[in-house]
Write a structure and sequence with these properties.
Largest sheet of chain B: 8 strands, parallel
GO molecular function, one term (chain A): peptidase activity
Order of helices and strands of chain A: EHEHEHEHEHEHEEHEEEHEHHE
CATH class of chain B: Alpha Beta
Radius of gyration of chain A: 18 Å
Structural class of chain A: alpha/beta
Distance between the termini of chain B: 71 Å
Number of domains of chain B: 1
Oligomer: heterodimer
CATH architecture of chain B: Alpha-Beta Barrel
Distance between the termini of chain A: 27 Å
Radius of gyration of chain B: 21 Å
Family (chain A): Belongs to the peptidase U32 family.
InterPro entries (chain A): Peptidase_U32 (IPR001539), RNA/ubiquinone_mod_enzymes (IPR051454)
CATH class of chain A: Alpha Beta
Number of helices of chain B: 10
Low-confidence stretches of chain A: none
Pfam families (chain A): Peptidase_U32
Protein name (chain A): U32 family peptidase
CATH superfamily of chain A: Aldolase class I
Number of domains of chain A: 1
Shape of chain B: globular
Number of helices of chain A: 10
Shape of chain A: globular
Number of strands of chain B: 14
Largest sheet of chain A: 13 strands, mixed
Chain lengths: ~300, ~325
Amino acid sequence: MFELSTNVASPQQLRRGDFSAYDALYLGEFSCLSYPNNFCAHPEFLADAVAQVHEMGKKAYLRLFAVPSNHDLPTVRNVIKTALGLPFDGFEVHNLGLLQMLKEMGNTKPIHLGVFGNLYTDATARVVKDYGVTRVYPNPELSLDEAIYIRDNTPIDVLIPVHGKIPLVVAETCFIHENSGGLPGEDCKFKCSQEHWLTRASGDWSLKDTGCMTLSGADLCMLEHVDKLAAAKLNAFYVQSHGESPDYIATVGRIYRDAFSRAFAGVAEGDVGPQLEQLAGLAKMGLCNGYYFGDAGRRYVGRA
Amino acid sequence: MVMMMAPGGTRDMCRLVLDEGADAVYVGVVGWSRRGAEHELSDDDIRHVIDDASARGREVRIVVNTLPSSTEIPMFVERIAQYAGWGAKGFMISDVGCMRLVRDLLPEVAVHTSVGCGVTNFEDVRFLRDNGATHVVLPYRMTVKEIAEIKQKTGVGIEVFLFKTPSGGKICPGKCMMSSYFSYRRWLDETGKDHFYGSASRGGDCLRVCQTEWDFGPDDSFIRHGMTIKTNPALWLDELPAYLAAGVDCLKVPGRDRSDLLVRDIVRFYRRVLDVIQESDRPDLSGFRDELLVFHQRWKVERGIRDNRLIGEAEREARRVERAQVSAKNFEVVI
């Protein structure tokens, strides 16, 4: 069948959220080690978290920090060391150096290459496969056809994001902290708990900023293409929900769970107008189709 | 001995930088480097530059640092073999899979990772080394201490830009897709080569949308107005002896998309600086500072012109697509 997954940054979010529509959870916020109680930086939370996710009957993947500098490596190593002794179903890695580290630490769990692993080609997929990678999240700039080509020619599983804001930039410093007068090393006071937006003064361009990561302003929405995804025998789908409310996560999950369940049962998708309207209502800056159809990421192509 | 690599955005620029003492010149292949076609060279030009450099005992690095489509890889390999056959001594590559293919095919050539690899730590460098890189370019923000640690732990050739970031802002080469989010177009040329307008990673110019004016803040209460998203790096000088002592092997002069004359003057400047450093245990670079400030100004002026041009292109492309969408919708209504 298929797997629908999303992300959870901390124990609080795990407790508060309704993840009933999902089959798997990626634990941790990969862009910022300072994010409060981030699973990526707190090995002490991992045992309870993995147990809790398994009790819900879901898979638990641990995300590793995407942009570790030399001085972050001991923290990441410590997290990996703890996780290797726990029943995680896999790791998600964005930084290629960590593939090396996992290999040398004797990891045998599956590894997923994350969005900032910058995977564009089947040639690179073959390289990371040699390091234990079993699933890749192709760079968002790739079209659907390119992602399918990589799956078939490597061969390797591909994760297809179907909804949520598209990660566009990750950086080593926090843009929110810097621009609100914060100094390096100072407590950031979790200012990213409020939504921050970049809006072009003279146009309709918008981006969402979570501090260390910039996301698309519009929400990627593939609801109108669920049939096509199922027909292409893609089976790992992802809802990007960092910075979104529990209601967003639950609602989006339910809509896609229903849509994929129908598609994989061979039931035609039919009119998704009401669901699309619901999703549009949750998207402050509208919907887009990303780069899946060879267009600029912010465009919405729709079924036509 | 450190190698100074200079940009060759035009055939004239290649000649000028070699005249001024660059040890190597790096040139982009049309459609295969992270710059627009006007700053890349045709195969004829590349062959000529290789011949010229070889005659002077200098080297050429071929920039093929796009992140290609999977289906382009056979063409990529064919091109690499051709340039190596012409005498190119090394290549600048972003895609790890392509890097490994080049290592297997041509183990004698130098493989420089591109800034697009987005290195952040020594484990990254080890990974790249183990997959074919002979030289790894480090990002602008790394300190001398970090560079020394990487050199010591990996032994790989270290390359740095003669360019650094004075302050914060998002600096994330290789991990930024802002340009293509707003303006992007893909097409195949007659040879089957994919082109990706608006994507720096895939060979189109980065349209510098980060350099337009943005308002920033929580929800609707903006805390900053009219700001740019990324900080621009600047040419640097005083830390150069420390960088060399830390084990830097290659210094990369930026500027493939700058004017021939500005790049010529910068190369002449750094040649003199490097000669002073290499002739003395305690080099005094104070006499170069005023000159550097003039370069900062000249650079800023040219960058401003380029950024405005590219942002204008991004806007025009966005409007073109919007118009096409409106026309398509009107057509549907008529039908």
